[in-house]
Every structure is written in C-alpha cells, then in structure tokens.
Amino acid sequence: MKMLTFANQDQMPILGLGTWKSAPNEVYGAVREALRIGYRHLDCAAIYGNEQEVGRAIREAIAEGSVTREALWVTSKLWNNGHGREQVIPALQRTLADLGLDYLDLYLIHWPIAQQPDKVSARSAADFIALADCPLTATWQGMEAAQAAGLVRHIGVSNFNARHLTQLLEGGQVKPAMNQIELHPYLQQPALVAFCQEHGIHLTAYSPLGSADRPAGLKAADEPILLEDPIIVQLARQHQATPAQVLISWSIHRGIAVIPKSVNPGRLRENFAAAELHLSAEDLRQLATLDRGRRYVDGKFWEVPDGPYTLAELWG
Ligand code: A2P
Fold first, then answer.
1. What percent of the chain has pLDDT over 70?
2. Cα 172 to ligand 1 centroid, rounded to whole Å
3. Domain spans in the chain, listed from the N-terminal domain onward
C-alpha cells in the first residue's frame, strides 16, 4: 500500500475507509471486516454519530491481537459547534472517549463554518457565528494546543479553500498537514490541489465514488452518476476492474488519499484491491477530461437567509 509521508516521517496509508453515512449497527461490522481485509486507515468524524461503534470495532480488533494501535491511522474531525480556541480540546476529548482511544493520528477542522456551541445542527442565521467573530486562526490555536498536549499527532482541515488555508499559513504556528476535500473526476479542483501541493499540504478525497447514499435532501434531481460514467465504465472493462476501482485508483495515482465508504464486505474487498490497479498515462488523460466542477456535497445547507455564510465565499 502506498503511503503519504508527513513532515515528521509518520506515514498514512493512502487508501482508507470512509465512515460518513455508515449507519449504527452497520459500521461495527464494516470496520471489523475492513481491518480483516487489511485497511489500516479509518476516517471518522464526531458528526457522523457513529464513533462509539467505530471505537468498539477498533478496540475489539486490537484486543483480539489482529492489529495494533500503532499500525492504525485514525482521523477524526471537529464539528462546527466546537470552533474557538478553548472548545477544541473538550470536543476532541469527547471524540477520543467515544472512540476509546488516547490519541488520534489526525484531527481536522471539519468545515470553515462556526456554529453556536449548543447548535449541533444549524438551520437559521442565529445558529451560526460569523468567522469575523470566531476566526479560523483562533480555532487553529486550539488545534495546535491539542497537538502540543499529545492528543493528536497531526492537525489539518477539511473543506478549506486557498483563502482559508492562507489565513492559517500566515497566522498559525503549525502548518495544516491535510486538507480533506471532495475530489473525483467530475470535481478535480486543479487550482486548490496545486495550491495545497505547493504548500506541502496533503490532500484526502472524500465522496470519491459520488456518495450516492447521502440523504435525499443533499441530492439534486438531475445529478450525474459517477459510477455509471461511460468513460469510467469503459476503463473498468479494459482493466477487468470495476468503476469504483478505477475511481479509487485515479486518486492514488494523483498522490491523493482516498476514503471510499462501504459497509458491504464484497465492496470493502473490491475497494481495497483498487490499490493494486495500474492506470496508464492515457487512462489518466481520459479521466482528466471528465472534470465538470460538479459538487455532490454542495454546501447549500450553510447558506441560510441573512446568515453569515455564502457558497461563493465558501468555495472561493
Ligand atoms: P455500500 O456502503 O452499500 O457499499 P462515497 O465513498 O463516495 O461516499 O460513496 C459511498 C457509496 O458508494 C455508498 O452508497 C456505498 O454503498 C457505495 N459503494 C461503495 N463501494 C462501492 C463499490 N465498489 N461499487 C459500487 N458502490 C459502492
């Protein structure tokens, strides 16, 4: 398995298991099966509402002796109602308690969006806090303090654009080690990828398969189905692989970590095997032509009447 190397030489497996949308009662089995297959990188978040179950699977696998904590890479994310310097460590401690771990390998600010501490979900303008009143640099100080306290090995962000990242690069002590963003052939984000690579910030691709299982409220009626794209289907046929494997391999070939979600044993295995699929320069050229700037997670839920966040500002 290819690894991404961090400044202190820590290594993260480039292919991980996504757990967004993995329902309670399903995610335990998925994580246990993934660890049996060989996955060593788990991508979690407090807001996924399943960290206790993920943690139980990790702990039981460790107790059984099939994997060690040191061999695992566990990422989690700070939810929007935990922004602010003093709030990060308490939120992180809740995640650690849920996962049953004493440290994370990577902790990310989930969104450049701040919500009132008592609002896990924000529906109206009053539920949000403008970044002018709760700057990303203040939240980042909390992330730096969590790292200094040994609660996390690495700190980074998710859904940040170049302008958000610049604030941290200029105003922070520690450089963000990761930006986790939506990336797939329909949303290749060349400028943001180049910006991160120029600044030595690793990338992780979320929704690499097009996240067809996300809630209906987050879906557009006319959305194109990535797994059914004719070029992707044709490349899969040529390689005797599946469309999902082509999508996962595409990210690995770009040196970008990728976290396909599955709770199905056959698909977990299929996705893991994508690490062995070799795409040619011509395959990659064809995939590069598919970019259409299509977001599956479009962030519309952050734009409320008279609220402090707009999509134009969010995505830069
Ligand atoms: P399931 O969990 O039943 O396998 P994303 O990672 O982009 O969020 O996409 C996750 C969606 O893709 C889920 O609906 C998941 O369903 C499905 N999925 C995962 N792996 C595969 C695969 N190899 N082929 C087809 N669909 C897949």
1. 100
2. 37
3. 3-221+256-264+294-315
